[in-house]
Amino acid sequence: MKNDVLRLFFALGCPPELAEGIATWRSSLHLPGRPVATANLHLTLAFLGQQPRARVAQMQDLASEVRATAFDLHLDRLGRQRNGLLYLAPSHTPEALLELVEQLYSNLSSAAIQLDSRPFRAHLSLLRHCPTQAIDANPSFDWPVSRFSLFASEQNARGSHYRQLHTWPLLRDEQEGSFTAE
Ligand code: ATP
Ligand code: MG
């Protein structure tokens, strides 16, 4: 990849302790496939694709304008796409998560940044190329989400590595009032 271009995405980076817990549970399932590296576990909010490095500052400005509240995410559903991607998802997507994604999309589109037209589906990728269809598991992971980040996806000898470029705090309920009261 050329140095002046970065593969960018906004995501919730999985906190290390939770990521360890998820990885341990995943190993206990003994499933075939290629596990996503524990350090890479994340939930994508908006994928920006290849962008000129010079635009990173603009992305940061757009993200700084987001006013969304912190929320609790309960990952309790195991799903598998037809391409064999196994993922964890919430059976109920919190309103605050949808609001965060909507604000990001809206700010990015107003800057003419092309985004995926498929609807947002909250998911955390666990394992690729998993051939097993019926999996007997009842996951239950609680994730208190208090920040979101901009990542650059890079390739190294071990595959993809996500470099966190910047992170923004989400508002606590009591902070929200001071923004909406203006
Ligand atoms: P690899 O492609 O090396 O297997 P990866 O898919 O995790 O690893 P990227 O392709 O850089 O790495 O993707 C980073 C994040 O963006 C992942 O969450 C991925 O699912 C998501 N993503 C990638 N391509 C798209 C796309 N076209 N639309 C929406 N999200 C995407
Ligand atoms: Mg990919």
CATH level 1 name = Alpha Beta
> What is the subunit arrangement here?
single chain
- Percent helix range: 25-40%
Give me the number of helical elements: 4
Structure characteristics:
globular, 4 helices, Cyclic Phosphodiesterase, Chain: A, binds magnesium ion, binds adenosine-5'-triphosphate, 182 residues, alpha+beta, 4-stranded antiparallel beta sheet
Secondary structure: elements and pairs:
Elements (H helix, E strand, L loop, with lengths): L4 E9 L2 H13 L5 E2 L6 E11 L3 H9 L6 E5 L1 E4 L5 E4 L5 H16 L13 E5 L12 E5 L1 E10 L2 E11 L3 H8 L2
This protein binds adenosine-5'-triphosphate and magnesium ion (MG).
How would you describe what is shown here?
Helix content is 25%, strand content 36%. By secondary structure, it is an alpha+beta fold. It has one domain (2-169): Cyclic phosphodiesterase (Cyclic Phosphodiesterase, Chain: A, Alpha-Beta Complex), CATH 3.90.1140.10. The chain is globular. The mean pLDDT is 92. The site of adenosine-5'-triphosphate has 8 residues, from strand 1, strand 3 and strand 10.
Describe what is shown at a glance.
This protein is of the alpha+beta class and 182 residues long. The chain has four helices and ten strands.
